[in-house]
């Protein structure tokens, strides 16, 4: 396994700072957040791309995945507004091209809550259409689209492994892959092994954190801080032969001093790697 962290944790710093932190704390990669001030796709001209490629080389750090911001205003693949969906698709096409230019073969997407009063099948039609367009372009560029399930408070369309499998069946593209975020399956009372067993080779990425067992809060990683037995989660990954990226995803309130909590997470990761021989 290789370890990285989502640079959104350092959203109050410029992107180069995340590469420095990755080198300082021994991470093999960073998961680049596709929002300002880091790597918003519409800002990524030739000069900006070259700067990021230079940081990869300078700090010896890979880009594990490119993660455009689509859980927040103004983008949504499931919006009832045709204009918003169209602009989201344009933005994601630009994002997948940015991912390819940055030399990563993965880009994450999510299905934001569509709002109330919308029929489920209508929402699924929107999501299938937009994802299909995106996957065609991603396939041409050699980039996998990594679909993440969400907790019910974040979205009500892709919340479990069955939802992921259903969208894969509807889109029918080898470019549409999946991941585990440690929080949503736990809230949904799904075993992590379901993702690894049923998604098979299309399960290509992991977001690591701990949780409170009730909300989408992405809590500090240590076993003592949350309700998820983190060490045993990694034991399950090892049993299934998962050997891909594990990316630390810490959000608010950790923005206040992201290096402090990154350092704390590193101690847990090192202990787990030694204990399980990862």
Automatic annotation (TrEMBL):
<dbReference type="InterPro" id="IPR036237">
    <property type="entry name" value="Xyl_isomerase-like_sf"/>
</dbReference>
<protein>
    <submittedName>
        <fullName>TIM barrel protein</fullName>
    </submittedName>
</protein>
<dbReference type="InterPro" id="IPR013022">
    <property type="entry name" value="Xyl_isomerase-like_TIM-brl"/>
</dbReference>
<feature type="domain" description="Xylose isomerase-like TIM barrel">
    <location>
        <begin position="19"/>
        <end position="271"/>
    </location>
</feature>
<dbReference type="InterPro" id="IPR050312">
    <property type="entry name" value="IolE/XylAMocC-like"/>
</dbReference>
<dbReference type="Pfam" id="PF01261">
    <property type="entry name" value="AP_endonuc_2"/>
</dbReference>
């Amino acid at each position: 396994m290789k370890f990285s962290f989502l640079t959104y944790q350092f959203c109050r710093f410029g992107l180069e700072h995340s590469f420095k932190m990755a080198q300082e704390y021994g991470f093999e990669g960073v998961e680049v957040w596709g929002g300002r001030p880091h790597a918003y796709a519409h800002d990524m001209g030739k000069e900006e791309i070259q700067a990021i490629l230079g940081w990869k080389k300078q700090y010896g750090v890979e880009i594990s995945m490119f993660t455009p911001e689509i859980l927040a205003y103004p983008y949504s693949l499931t919006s009832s507004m045709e204009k918003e969906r169209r602009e989201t698709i344009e933005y994601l096409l630009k994002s997948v091209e940015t991912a390819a230019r940055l030399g990563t073969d993965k880009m994450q997407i999510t299905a934001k809550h569509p709002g109330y009063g919308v029929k489920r099948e209508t929402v699924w039609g929107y999501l299938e259409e937009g994802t299909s367009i995106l996957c065609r372009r991603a396939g041409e560029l050699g980039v996998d689209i990594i679909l993440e399930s969400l907790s019910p408070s974040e979205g009500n369309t892709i919340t479990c492994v069955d939802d992921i499998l259903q969208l894969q069946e509807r889109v029918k593209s080898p470019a549409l892959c999946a991941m585990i975020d440690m929080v949503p399956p736990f809230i949904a009372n799904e075993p992590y092994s379901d993702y690894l067993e049923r998604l098979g080779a299309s399960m290509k990425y992991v977001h690591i954190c701990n949780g409170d067992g009730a909300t989408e809060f992405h809590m500090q990683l240590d076993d003592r801080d949350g309700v998820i037995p983190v060490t045993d989660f990694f034991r399950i990954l090892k049993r299934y032969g998962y050997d891909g990226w594990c990316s630390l995803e810490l959000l608010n309130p950790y923005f206040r001093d992201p290096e402090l909590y990154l350092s704390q997470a590193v101690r847990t990761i090192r202990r787990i790697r030694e204990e399980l021989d990862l």
